[in-house]
Amino acid sequence: MKNYLQKAYGFDGTVRIYAAITTGMCKEAQDIHNLWPTSAAALGRTLTISSIMSCTYKAGEHLTIKVCGDGPIGQITVEATDGTVRGFVHNPGVYLSYNNGKLNVGDAVGKNGYIEVIKDLNLRQPFSSTCELVSGEIAEDFTYYFAKSEQIPSAVGLGVLFDTNAKVKAAGGFLIQVMPGCSPETLDTIEKTLANIKSCSAMIDAGYNAVDIINELTNGNYELLEERELFYSCPCNKKRFANGLMTLGKIELQNILNTDHKATINCNFCNKKYEFNSQELQELINLLDSKKS
Ligand code: ZN
After folding, report:
1. For 238-292, CATH number?
2. How many whole angstroms from 274 Cα to the centroid of ligand 1?
3. Per residue in 23-43, pLDDT tens?
4. Domain with CATH 3.55.30.10 in the chain
5. Closest of 137, 259, 153, 249 to residue 200, by C-alpha
6. 80 C-alpha vs ligand 1 centroid, how far in Å?
7. Regarding the domain delimited by 3-232, which CATH topology (the fold level of the hierarchy) does it fall under?
8. CA 243 centroid distance within chain
9. Cα of 241 to ligand 1 centre, how many Å?
10. pTM score > 0.85 for this model?
11. CA 233 / ligand 1 centre spacing (Å)
């Protein structure tokens, strides 16, 4: 299933809008990590806003986004570059809901904590900014992040909907950014619209595409810009993990070789397993030796 994002101007070019359909991406994340619904909703919302954010910054900018709340889910970690994301949650097995059956993402993530966004353009020192959580519901937290850390008045909508088998069936989100020169009347209109529209995931479940969502958000006053495809993808490989093992140092590697005769590493982002047998471990030790001399 194609994941994509549509950019647009709204209200005669005074607001920027990004609407994303991420059902496939959130399904993939749920399958990879075996996520229970509330964990899947929290990660899905974070993946969605991260994929949108990565399309608002400079090309090639690498984002690491951490949502660190005090709830049972623990830390949510997402990396995003140019619309390609990967992520994981500390505890995949959380299923918390309100009395009305709606998933309780706020309590599962926790209201006390912070969002950290690290931007790396590979040119200079990575730039990091943090901002406290508001509700743990993710959309509100990022709305506050944009206002406080980036000084951009914004509105964020995010949603992940599940079928009766607790599997993701619709997911997506939007980001509205107000540009200088936006009139108070427009702000008023946007606020009223946001208070009255269906949730993002309900719209997507009802068959809305990204343009339909933009149409809904702007009462038809929009101008379409580019469409971008979004992906869940992990670029990990054995060589990267070999380099990681080597950072443990010769003594530690020798220890592993002597006691376990092998090392197994699990990629947090895609759950792929990499195994290093005794011969491969010996080769890494030899490599460390040759570097020293
Ligand atoms: Zn991986």
Report:
1. 3.90.1280.10
2. 10
3. 999 999 999 999 999 999 999
4. 3-232
5. 137
6. 14
7. Hsp33 domain (3.55.30)
8. 26
9. 10
10. yes
11. 8
